[in-house]
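--- STAGE predict ---
source: upstream dedup step, 1 unique chain passed
mode: sequence only
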Amino acid sequence: MIVPGDYIPGVYSLSGSILDSANNHTIVNYSLVIDDTPPVVAVNAPTLSEEVSGGQQYNILWTATDSESGIKPNSVKIKFFDGTDWTTLAQNLPNSGSYSWDIERLNGDDYKIRVVAVNNALLTDRDTSGKFTIGDFSSPVITLNGDQQITIFKGATYVDMGATAVDNYDG
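--- STAGE serialize ---
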C-alpha cells in the first residue's frame, strides 16, 4: 500500500479479503495509523548547573512519548558532549526513562547529555540537557590507626601509629 502525499493523519480501519479456487473466503481487518508527528523527548537529569561526581554511577533520566504511533522498541540513544565532541554512551535502549551511567573521572563544567528517540513511524526527536559539571565533590576520608586522643608524658617516647587516607576520586 502506498500512502499518497495528501493524506490526512489519523487511524484508519481497513479490510482485505481473498477467495481461493475452492470458494474458501477469508477476511482480514486491520488498522492503519498515519503518523506525521514526531515523538516528544525531554531530558530530566542531569539538569542545568548540576554538579555530578565523576568516577561514580549516575542515573540519566528522560521522558519520551508519542501519542500516535508510540515509541519504537529499543530505539533510544544517549549521547555525551565533552565540551568538544558528541560520543554515544548507549543506543538501542528501551524507553525506560532511566540509564545508569558510569561517569569517567572528569573535571569541567561544559558537559551535556542528549537523548534521541524514534517513534514507530520512524520520526525522531531529541532533547539536550543544560550544561552540567563533572568533578570531585567528595572530601577524602582520613582514618587514624591509633586513638583520637593521646596523652604523652614529659620525657616519654612516642611512636605515631599512622593514618590512612582514601579519596574516591584521586585514590
